[in-house]
Amino acid sequence: MVVLANQVDQISLLGAPKPDAYFSGIPVINLAETGSADAIVKACQEFGFFKVINHGIPIDIMAKLEEEAVKFFSLPQVEKEKSGPPNPFGYGNKSIGPNGDVGWVEYLLFAVTSKPFSYTSMPVLQEPSAISFRSALNEYISAARKLASEVLELMAEGLKIEPRNVFSKLVMDETSDEIFRLNHYPPCPLLQGLNCSLTGFGEHTDPQIISVLRSNDTQGLEIALRDGSWVSVPSDQESFFINIGDSLQVMTNGRFKSVRHRVLANGLKSRVSMIYFGGPPQTQRIAPLTQLMGEGEQSLYREFTWEEYKKAAYKSRLADYRLGQFEK
Ligand code: GA4
């Protein structure tokens, strides 16, 4: 145990997940089926989280990027560190964000600023040999952004608001603030035989509008249900998982829930995840849509721009309830 404490420093150990915490209730949305708009709205209200199947994105696009990510994370530590530390973009190891959060994870964070995006500040991606990594990234990010947009349009349809692109236009704009993240949770063999698990990525909500996650077939992701209990999300490498972010919670005046989630490290297997975060342009005002407000309904939040929210987020700790300071 002493050895474990030395190895993982201040990363928090959690109680082992209970066997019955494996949750079979994650809503599954079949995009090939009619009626998915209503099912999406229901999932956003109940969980702020759902799985998407029949999404039309070839498995090959995910597999190619996973292969490139594994190649990158297998490089010697000194090589990887040439693309770090993240400020906020670049390679990071154990340290998450600027305020002292840590987890059993290493990652690459990209700003999706120009489309197709550039890799300034990532030396490893500027090497000529990185052609296949760059092309896998571009291909994957375009597909994930398109999926985010389709899902956001179904949300508008399900909420019966117009135009249909009222949400999707916010992430599809030339100036949209999008982020992409590749995470690698290395196995932690020291955990074997111990009745506890290690925090890979601590609990938090995503500040943006929508997040699109895909992982390999290693378990680890957990979401908090409305009663605050944690459940483990069965992994599915062929599907995507969608999270509602804080900004969409505000735009729906609390109807859609920004889901709290976390990742636990695994004793035996590596987990690789890839997440697209769709955020609006910096100057975008984030407020409940008038069309959604019932008669006499008041906004739960004071007005703010995405730029203000982001600034506040980067001053916070990962687990903080960031919307708190914007509530009325
Ligand atoms: C959570 C969602 C995304 O991963 C992220 C994270 C960001 C970071 O890792 O740099 C933050 C975190 C996230 C919210 C609060 C701040 C910023 C770490 C942190 C402590 C890229 C994002 O946009 O916000």
UniProtKB/TrEMBL annotation:
**GO molecular function, one example?**
metal ion binding
Cofactor names: L-ascorbate
* Pfam families in alphabetical order: 2OG-FeII_Oxy, DIOX_N
Alphabetic keyword roster: Dioxygenase, Iron, Metal-binding, Oxidoreductase
Residue ranges constituting the Fe2OG dioxygenase domain according to the UniProt record: 175-280
Which SUPFAM superfamilies does the protein's record reference? Answer: Clavaminate synthase-like
What EC number(s) would the UniProt record show?
A: 1.14.11.13
Could you confirm whether the keyword Magnesium appears in this record?
A: no
Give the catalytic activity: gibberellin A1 + 2-oxoglutarate + O2 = gibberellin A8 + succinate + CO2
Family to which this protein belongs:
Belongs to the iron/ascorbate-dependent oxidoreductase family. GA2OX subfamily.
Name of protein = gibberellin 2beta-dioxygenase
Give the species: Phoenix dactylifera (Date palm)
Q: What is the lineage of its organism?
A: Eukaryota, Viridiplantae, Streptophyta, Embryophyta, Tracheophyta
Name of the gene encoding the protein in the UniProt record: LOC103709450
